[in-house]
Design goal:
heterodimer, A: two-stranded antiparallel sheet, 3 strands, flat, B: alpha+beta, 3 domains, 8-stranded mixed sheet, 3-stranded antiparallel sheet, 15 helices, 40% helix
């Protein structure tokens, strides 16, 4: 088992996922099995293999520096839970 | 115990592109909230980022200017954290393969040149802004800034004082403006600085525990914030405590740093390559092309000003602090028929002084190089004295006339007719026998009285050197 229950709790917290206490053991086992599957790759010799940043063997297309978007605030804010003076409102965050 | 300060800086420079790094929304400052936040900037489902080629070119230009290694192959990564002004839940940044590798910047402190290492510079997107004013206990979010391209420039921990840190920051500020890749406006947050600060006993090899100072957005605050933090750290250690690695916020009003968040919830950003973006390749041909487009950089220009115009290091430094000022100087020299010294003095003295008084930039100067050059020409050919020149300068500042027009209209031409001056001197000597007696009796201070009288009589239009010479002769008799 490569993960502990504490690892799972930490990952869930970082991802802001609420998980039930009773499912933690299951998650721990499932996630560990996935990681174990991947650790099989550790047995391969990859000395001459360049690390892959993307599965597609292509390079990023660049776009010219032009403003192409117009103001659609009203449309976007229609689906927001709460807005005021053009701002999106969210629960208070304190640093 | 003697302590040594160790400082490294992370500078965020907003790149001066018209549109955002991954979307076609405008980056213009000061728009109504959220009117420049499109679907990509809002992190709505189903959108894809498309990289702005100008942001890439600007990053490469910066790398070339600091003689850095420009990577051939660069990758974007996701930096994961939750904050409401980051709607996607991750910031697109770079981690393992930044676009700009190790380079350097030379700073001048107390007459010595020191080389500061630049570890790396990478492209990333800016976050939005949280407004904590009272919205019924809620926080307001403006995402206009979200997606603005940033170049994060990370230095080596090479600085040993707040002064060096400020010098480095100024150099970088000067450079990005020369390159025209960032407007450098610190009030609007276009150029921001975080400082990593630690102390160690002098002579010790390993670094002490560092704290990160955030939110220091003026040159003055950087120096003050670092000095305060250094004092605080030394206090803590000397009282038997230990420094905790944490982020501290500089509060300019209280003039102190305070803890922002402990790293107990360690920033675990879980970087991984962004599957939405393919790697970028920087071809040698692009590098060569951008290199040929680089302007003369501040250090080279300063050198040239010293050798070509014979300026001292300080004056050359002032006159090359921005590209616009340097150009103003060169045009003034040209317009004055190469009266270099006076041009340098008038620009670095009277002109900059007058501009600062009204918070004007050199580009907003009411007097252009041609008119200033015209004034300097008349000082240099003795048409007017330096003192009268200040009067003409004043008139030029408030109007459109040339120096020649003002001199003509106000009758300010220096009196070169020595006969006329001689007559005035004779009258003054005849009218002030008491002062003459005092002078001849050894009271040399009275000489100033005579000079003053002559100047008054000629309304300052006599050449001071000439008056001095003639007075001395006359009073000998």
């Amino acid at each position: 088992m490569s993960l502990t229950a504490d690892d799972v709790k930490k990952i869930a917290h970082l991802a802001r996922l609420g998980i039930d206490q009773q499912n933690i053991d299951n998650y721990t086992q499932d996630l560990s099995r996935m990681l174990d599957l991947m650790t099989q790759m550790n047995d391969l010799n990859t000395d001459d293999v360049a690390p892959m940043a993307h599965p597609l063997d292509q390079q990023q297309r660049l776009r010219p520096d032009e403003v192409t978007e117009s103001d659609q605030r009203e449309k976007f804010q229609r689906i927001a839970p709460q807005v005021e003076n053009g701002l999106y409102l969210v629960p208070k965050v304190i640093d | 115990m003697e302590w040594e300060v160790v400082i490294g800086l992370e500078i965020h420079a907003q790149l001066a592109t018209k549109s955002k790094i991954f979307s076609g929304a405008s980056t213009a400052y000061g728009a109504q909230p959220n009117t420049q936040a499109c679907a990509v900037d809002l992190g709505l489902p189903g959108v894809l980022p498309v990289l702005n080629q100008e942001a890439v070119r600007m990053a490469v230009k910066f790398g070339l200017a600091i003689e850095a290694e420009i990577t051939h192959y660069s990758v974007f990564a996701r930096k994961n954290y939750f904050y409401p002004d980051l709607p996607k839940g991750y910031q697109i940044s770079q981690f393992e393969l930044p676009i700009v590798g190790p380079g350097h910047i030379d700073i001048d402190v107390d007459g010595n040149t020191k080389r500061i290492g630049v570890t790396r510079a990478h492209l990333e997107e800016d976050a939005g802004k949280s407004l904590h004013a009272d919205f019924q206990g809620l926080t307001g979010i403006d995402l206009n800034r979200a997606g603005t391209p940033l170049l994060e420039i990370v230095s080596e921990p090479d600085m040993r004082s707040a002064k060096e840190a400020v010098a480095y920051m100024r150099k970088l500020h000067e450079l990005v403006r020369y390159l025209e890749i960032c407007d450098g406006n610190m009030q609007e947050g276009s150029f921001r600085c975080d400082a990593n600060v630690s102390v160690r006993p002098k002579g010790q090899q390993e670094f002490g525990t560092r704290t990160e100072l955030k939110n220091i957005n003026s040159f003055r605050f950087v120096e003050r914030a670092i000095n305060h933090e250094v004092e605080r750290q030394i206090d803590v250690i000397e009282n038997g405590g230990t420094i905790i690695q944490e982020t501290r916020l500089y509060d300019a009003d209280a003039d102190e740093t305070r803890s922002m968040r402990t790293k107990e919830e360690a920033n675990d950003y879980r970087y991984f390559p962004d599957p939405d973006l393919l790697p970028i390749y920087i071809e040698d041909s692009l590098k060569a092309q951008l290199k040929s487009e680089l302007p003369e950089l501040p250090a080279a220009k300063k050198e040239r000003f010293m050798s070509q115009f014979g300026l001292d290091q300080e004056t050359a430094g002032i006159l090359t602090s921005t590209r616009e000022l340097a150009q103003f100087f060169e045009l003034t020299v040209e317009a004055s028929d190469n009266v270099v010294k006076l041009a340098a003095n008038w620009i670095s003295g009277d002109l900059i002084g007058a501009l600062n008084k009204q918070s004007l930039e050199i580009t907003e100067s009411p007097i252009d190089p041609v008119r200033l050059g015209g004034l300097i020409k008349r000082i240099s050919d003795n048409t007017i004295s330096g003192k009268i020149a200040k009067q003409v300068f004043e008139a030029m500042w408030h109007g459109q006339d040339s120096a020649d027009d003002i001199i003509e209209a106000q009758g300010l031409k220096q009196i070169t007719d020595t006969g006329a001056i001689e007559a005035i001197i004779d009258t003054i000597i005849a009218n002030n026998p008491k002062q003459v007696e005092q002078y001849l009796g050894g009271k040399e201070k009275v000489f100033g009285f005579f000079v003053g009288q002559v100047m008054k009589e000629t309304q300052g239009k006599a050449s001071p050197a000439e008056v001095n010479k003639m007075l001395k002769q006359k009073l000998k008799k």
